[in-house]
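Suppose a classmate hands you a notebook page containing two proteins, each written out with its sequence and a corresponding row of structure tokens. How would you begin to make sense of it? This section walks through that situation. The first entry is reproduced here exactly as it would appear on such a page.
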Amino acid sequence: MSSVKRTKCSKGTRKNTKTGICEKHTVKESKRCPRGTRKNKKTGKCDSVLDNTCAICLDRITSSNVKTRCKHNFHKKCLVAWCKSSPECKCPICRGDIKSTCKKIIPFDSSEVFRYIPTYGRMNDVQIEQAEKIMKHKDFDVNVTRTGPDLIIDGITYRGKTVSLLESLVRRNNSSTQLIDYLLKQPGIEVKDELVSELIGSKSYDMLQLFKKNKKIPKHLKNLI
């Protein structure tokens, strides 16, 4: 009986079972993804963790995402809240300018105008400019109101009362007359008899002239001026 001599392959080689020849054996190294990235099971590529994670709430992004001009992904609702709370509109990750993105995703809100009407003191030029910018928006509601448990206007507390923008501006002696004049010129503006009566009672003749110029004095109150 003849014995078959088995030859051992040299180090670094392995016998090919089909051909019986010793071939060079290379071990495929499984490359680890760099820090801050994760392997995509579909593509096999290392993708940034931030691409699929909202840096604001730290939850995974599955839908309703927004990509900024600096190529960072966020949940839309998270970025809207961030834009509203950050006047400078800087990216939460790289601090890049994302004003254009914020402008696109923030729904227009007429009540934002009240942010520029201070509780006390005179409105400065910046506040007037910003308020006017909102008021001249095509979707602005000229009869927008605000309600507060303690709404204070020129030292008078209006508890739980709903006050319109026109009332807020008129009842402030230091408000800009150009904003009031603009509101009075709008066809859909609502002027309450109570407001005109207050002006008559307080003898605010300059303001009454503004109302008269824009034909906003009710007929039954004209004789009292």
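The notebook's second entry, a different protein, reads as follows.
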Amino acid sequence: MENNNFDLLNLYKLQLSDSRISYLEREIEKLKANEELKTREEELKECEEKYDDLMKKYNELDKERKKLDDDLSIRNEKIKKNEQKLSSGMLTSSKEIMNYQEEIVSIKKLNESMEDSIIEIMIKIDDINELIRLEKEKKEKIRFHIDKLKEEISRNVASVEEKLKSYIVKKENTIKLIPQDLFVKYGEVKGKRGGVAVGILKERLCMACNMEMSAGEAGKMDNLEEIYRCPTCKRMIIKYREEVDLINEEFSI
């Protein structure tokens, strides 16, 4: 494939640009798919579920406590009214007096049982409150770590994206220097050869597939201004020259 008065190394620069762009795009995906972040987010989800479960239990116990408190207040009010009636002197029947006295005793016994239940509930609430406090602290620590990780990931992604933009610009500028028909051919080979269309032939080694060709085949590829085909990988190859090292350095990440 003959060179029609353009710098063949621009084709190699295009390949390096594409390779670097693909590499950086993969790096961005890897950064965004941070495994530690996923693990921390799963931990946070579990922690929030446990916290919500504890809060549900707390609310249920507190609701039960309030109901018992209300019932206890009603019964105490009943005791108070009965005692007022007994002390008012308005009751003349001994049976009626006895009934009020027995009711007071009965309510007080029931109240003692309710007060014991309230104490038990309060103990449970105290225990759950401590678990809630610990779980809340754990949530805050995990969230803090997640926020730090996200900040770090964002900085790293932004840094890689800057590099990516520079290689995209290099690629766009390089494409302008390559004949359209050759650019189309480059795309065809690139699509068939795993994203790599162009390699360098150094002595007998194709640096695209890292395979050596025979001395006879390499000897036929001696023109610096011609594009050859690797007999092994079928990619386009360009004869090595010192400028290649400078280009590789320019495109190093």
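A careful reader of the second entry would note: The mean pLDDT is 94.
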